[in-house]
Known about the structure:
This protein is an alpha+beta fold.
Amino acid sequence: MTTPPSRDVWSPVVYGRTLHADFWWRAVPAGVPRRGWLTDVVHASVNNGRRIATAPRFALARTDDWVLAGVACAAAEISTDFSHQGLRPLYTFVGWAGPADAATEIPPLHRWHAQWRTWTRDSYDRWLRDVWTLPSRQLQQPRDSGPEQAGWTSPEEELGEQPAPERSYPAEPGTVWLLPATAGPGLWEQGRLGTAPMRLVTGWEKAGHALLAGTTHITAADVDLPRRRPLPTARTATPPPPPPQEPSTAPPQAETRPVQRPHCLRRTAARIPILKRLFGKGEPRHTRPHGGPPDTTANYAVPLAAVGQHVRETPAPPMDDHAARAQFDAHPDFAEPEQPEDRPR
């Protein structure tokens, strides 16, 4: 069995940052929407560079119209000139996208393991060299890539017997298959030769390191048995604010608050009974039987505003000044605090 000859239908897909610009898309096939399945597969493959220095990860994805094959790796594996931003090591994704009916031209997985550096080196260098030192304002949008021969165009070679998948693992919405690493070659053939949409990322050491969102199949070395896991639910969007209410035509209502009298008026109100006794309108204490409580039938409710008028208009009772002063000073509310003996007066 030999590899079918590659046609000029494969458009490069290159994802990697430059020296000064933190914009990562370098080449996107013309006609392929970047925000969609392509972004999901590339992001799931690189996963922000997590554990990418230990081993590359290979991706194969297909939709009804397109098919993608590529590798996520450390940039130092395929380049010496565009591998670091200062002391920071960079990572990249390099692959090719073509029409779905050309999927059989994609090499098997074992050939990717053997030759991925040779296939991707020239494409990465070509799409990074001209923009490596450009400022950010010139690199906010990726460049469109056109159809060409894929990087795996090499003399036809004998492939040998290709492994067939032990069983079919159909992609289902909302779930992802976690499979052993040994299932990778069979799943790759399922994507190459089949027609059903799928998004495979193979080469993980641990399934816990993988980004499940955007994929349908993941292979990892620490997975023993195939199992299906629900995809993490997307965060719910913040509900929109309520529409603004129309201004009311009614006049604004005045805010009602409980009226609280000032402290000085409260003290004055407490002294009303004393004032009434002093000026002859109250019931003197010495007239109560045995000094008991005052007569409850008497009306002692005197408006506070009338106290001043009452004081001005009411003649003084027949009491000498010394007796009135003595009675006033004897009341506990008006008694002066005791002074310590050693305090000078």
